[in-house]
Design brief:
The protein contains twelve helices and 17 strands. Bound molecules: flavin-adenine dinucleotide.
Length: about 450
């Protein structure tokens, strides 16, 4: 044992026992859990926040990018339920891949042109609550996966730290949708992060919200000790005024140089982002004379990239640029490679415009299979891909499709009494297609 370490042992109750445990309740996790429960499986979903949704709710990111139709019946249901609240923009098909689209736009125009569907995230929280209860999924909130117990490649239990203290959950199948690949990491399977050369991750962004005052009410300026004064917009971090569904405005600011998988670094990122937030607000109020009032901040900083899993196949940027098809395809992506440079807080991209647009491509089942693991799948932004391939596939639409596929795969394997690797992939694809997922 190295210095500065302790060992401790403690008996903890196995309070939960299910067919399929989904760890992480972002859009990938919700899609996986609902898909598995709809196939009759007993499912538990666990999230460290006070609501489900991950970046789409707690992270303040209120727009679905990519193609919003054909992602599968779970994503269709999410859209349909948001429509019931009048809380989502109309459908626009994702533009067809073309030379013109490829050459004539900068990233901001490209974002506009690809018509993300903006929604009201406050309603999305209730939509997710409703879906979980509709499909009888047990849901633990304020509960974090902190360890996993593994024997010969099989995860036996995950250790959860919730309000009651440490408890364990046993399951036949586990699906890691934590975004940070926490389960895979704690279980001792392979993960990677950041750029290949130096492991630096994509930047995070903080979403915060302003009210736009129409009257001429005086605004009290932010005290100088909280916001270092900036006189020129170029001195600010990249900041984007961002619509937040029908009800307000958000500002997104880029925060680079932190590691979302490290306790100290992530804590610093949150604190630094709030400092930058006040600086940005101060600039707009004081220099540009905008009559904006600070409304609220997202409960957590938006994390684009944590750990990524080493799977049976690592999806590569060259695969997606070539629009590669796979025999074991379980999802489809169309979104451009949206990779902000991690090296500065300014608007700099990792790829040239002309290279960032991609033709429709497929994601293979093998990139959801965790290398050397028997009963563990991954879905969402921590799936097995290189950094740039993930920068396209991480959008809500594609991650929901991956999640649904993972949920179906786990349920089918249990139903057929086979391992995840012996699963008949054409049966899986048939099921995905039957459930409104368009793979081609
Ligand atoms: C700033 C920003 C802007 C973006 N803009 C867009 C956009 O406009 N449109 C778009 O489609 N996509 C956008 N994306 C991408 C998209 O938000 C994500 O890639 C998407 O959230 C992926 O979903 P997920 O379920 O894989 O991960 P997440 O949304 O990150 O969900 C992971 C969940 O796991 C939980 N969790 C993590 N660790 C643990 C643990 N140990 N125990 C228990 N729970 C845990 C988290 O609380 C979270 O709920 C953006 C991302 C960011 C950060």
């Amino acid at each position: 044992m190295s210095e500065n370490c302790i060992t401790f042992s403690k008996e903890i109750p196995v309070r939960y026992s299910v067919d399929i445990a989904v760890l992480g309740g972002g859009i990938a996790g919700i899609s996986a859990a609902c898909a598995a429960a709809k196939m009759g499986k007993k499912v538990l979903i666990v999230d460290k926040m006070n609501c489900l949704g991950g970046n789409s709710t707690s992270g303040g990111v209120a727009s679905f990018c990519g193609e919003t139709s054909g992602q599968g019946e779970i994503f269709d249901e999410i859209i349909h339920r948001l429509e019931g609240f009048g809380a989502i923009a109309e459908y626009n098909p994702y533009p067809k891949y073309s030379k013109e689209l490829k050459l004539s736009h900068n990233h901001e125009e490209l974002f506009e042109q690809t018509k993300p569907r903006i929604f009201d995230l406050q309603f999305l929280i209730s939509v997710f609550d409703k879906m979980i209860s509709t499909y009888n999924i047990e849901c633990l909130l304020h509960t974090r996966v902190v360890d996993a117990i593994t024997t010969e490649g099989s995860v036996k239990q995950v250790v959860l730290a919730g309000q009651s203290g440490l408890e364990a959950c046993s399951a036949d199948m586990f699906i890691d949708c934590t975004g940070e690949a926490d389960v895979v990491f704690h279980a001792g399977f392979g993960t990677m992060k950041g750029r290949e050369e130096d492991n630096i991750q994509l930047p995070m962004s903080l979403m915060f919200f302003i009210r736009n005052l129409n009257d001429n009410k005086d605004i009290t300026l932010i005290p100088e000790e909280y916001a270092e004064r900036v006189h020129n917009k170029d001195e600010l971090p990249m900041n984007t005024l961002w619509p937040n569904g029908p009800s307000g405005n958000a500002i997104k600011i880029k925060i680079n140089g932190f590691d979302s998988t490290d306790t100290v670094s992530l804590s610093k990122a949150e604190i630094e982002s709030r400092k930058k937030m006040l600086q940005v607000i101060d600039y707009y109020q004081r220099v540009e004379k905008r009559n904006w009032y600070f409304d609220h901040i997202s409960p957590m900083i938006g994390i684009r990239e944590g750990r990524r899993v080493i799977g049976d196949y690592i999806l590569k940027v060259s695969d997606i640029q070539a629009g590669r098809k796979f025999k074991d395809a379980i999802a489809k992506g169309v979104y451009f490679i949206d990779a902000l440079s991690p090296l500065s807080d300014k608007r700099e991209m990792l790829m040239k415009m002309e290279d960032s647009q991609v033709p429709p491509y497929q994601i293979p089942y093998r990139s959801l299979l965790v290398k050397d693991a028997v009963n563990l799948l991954v879905a969402g932004r921590c799936f097995s891909a290189d950094q740039l391939a993930m920068s396209s596939a991480r959008v809500f639409t594609t991650t929901s499709m991956m999640g649904q596929a993972a949920g179906i795969a786990a349920a089918l394997a249990l139903q057929n009494n086979c391992t995840l690797r012996n699963l008949n992939v054409s049966e899986l694809q048939k099921e995905i297609t039957k459930k409104k997922g368009v793979l081609d």
